[in-house]
Amino acid sequence: MAEYSVFDIMGPVMIGPSSSHTAGAARLSGVARKIVGEPFGKVAFYLHGSFARTYRGHGTDKALAAGALGLSPDDERLRDSLSLAREQGIEIQFLEADLGECHENTVRMDFYTLEHGVFSVTGSSIGGGNILITELGGYDVEITGTAPTLIIRQNDQKGVISEISTVLAQNNINIAIMKVKRKKRGDEASTIIETDGEIPAQVLLQLKSLDNILDVKAVSI
Amino acid sequence: MFTTGNELLAVCWEHNCSIAQAVLMREEQLSGRSEKQIRQELREVLAVMRASSRKAVGQPVQTVGSMIQGDSQRMSRYLKRGRTLCGDSVNTAMMRALSSCEVNASMGRICAAPTAGSCGIVPAVLFTCAEKFFLNDRQLQDALLTASGIGIIIAQNATVSGAEGGCQAECGAAAAMAAAAAVQAMGGAPEISLHAAAISLKNVMGLVCDPIAGLVESPCAKRNASGAVNAMVSADLAMAGIRSAIPFDEVVDAMYRVGRMLPTQLRETALGGVAATPTGKKIARSIFGEQRVAENV
Questions:
Q1: Inter-residue contact B170 to B158 (CB < 8 Å)
Q2: How much is the pTM?
Q3: CB-CB neighbors (< 8 A) of A9 in chain B
Q4: What's the fold here for domain A149-219?
């Protein structure tokens, strides 16, 4: 059973009309923007299930665009996000899609980055403004965006996890939740770490310099 | 600390404190934050609630479906004419609930309490109590804490989602939260708050979620208005000494069971209830066009 805070019940403070279709949608693309972490010229949103059927009426389109532009879910400019995107020269596209077996409110967000091609993030708005990022560039993940999160791709070798946790401990960062997944033995693996404190840039550099680490991204909150 | 109404009462008894203080202690423990920090956030929440419950009264806002815009201003004009059946408190509360719903439907800023669809009820009742009983800021924050405590118990033991439990779970929960807060604002003991919350939930047990065109406008806004009134009459019933025959925890459990018995057509899908009436479908078609409605409704 979840332990609800006072502000889970009295909140979120948000732009209406729907916590799952507006606030959750803005958080999804906002977290995706942080994960992508680099400039982009276009975002294509592939809307699934209830998102596909009701996105216009609930303002899900405007919310998704707003999050991608970095607006928070309670920013009153959210309703004008589509024109804001045009002003910034960012193309926003909405497509209805069947994303298979997943939550009714799921969206795949393809960010067309200026330097590194397309980066794809998939996530669901699971109610009350809460979200779950479920896939990153082909990897299954579980990211809630409620705590600072490290997203690491590494070679599946023994000792790598220990080196990662050593760097974090040396920098006085406590690990709250850690999940390791791999495609197959000895291949690439991914590690998602939620921490109790923000992750400074120099920690990212330290992690990137480790052997067998392929990529490191951090999502602040 | 507590997950049920009975446990909440035990905490209040043990510490000889109000529900607000018990909820504050739990929040301090859970979040690791100080009372000062928590009260600061409560102030921010109250500021958003105050603004949303006033905004559309003076200036109607354009809602997506154009189904409810101007309703809170209509209530305001009606009130000014000075001849109402239910009197100033009830009509003022309804006007405020309608305002928050209009702001929500126009993509304005609101505070979900507990959900966006039911965002009008708690502010309407709280600010009406504040005027009637001259509550100061701290007492308003305490009322918000009490309302949250009831919401936490309902969310943890049942649901506050219309898609899961119907409108009884959204507007019903909001009314229960507001009723308990109103009782505290009037000086009632913790157990009286729980009786008021139980009565509110029972009054709308089985209420379905059937938004026309899938938009959070109609019948949602009027159910916020009646939800605010439900909270107020439940608080008065309880303060008069009338008890809920069924304890709060059992009512919450019953509400959850009823919600699970509701077919999906009656849980926020716009496939049943007034959404599926000929007029409901006609409104949906006028907003979204033929094809989309044929596919969904």
A1: no
A2: 0.89
A3: 113-114, 147-148, 151-152, 155, 160, 177
A4: Alpha-Beta Plaits (3.30.70)
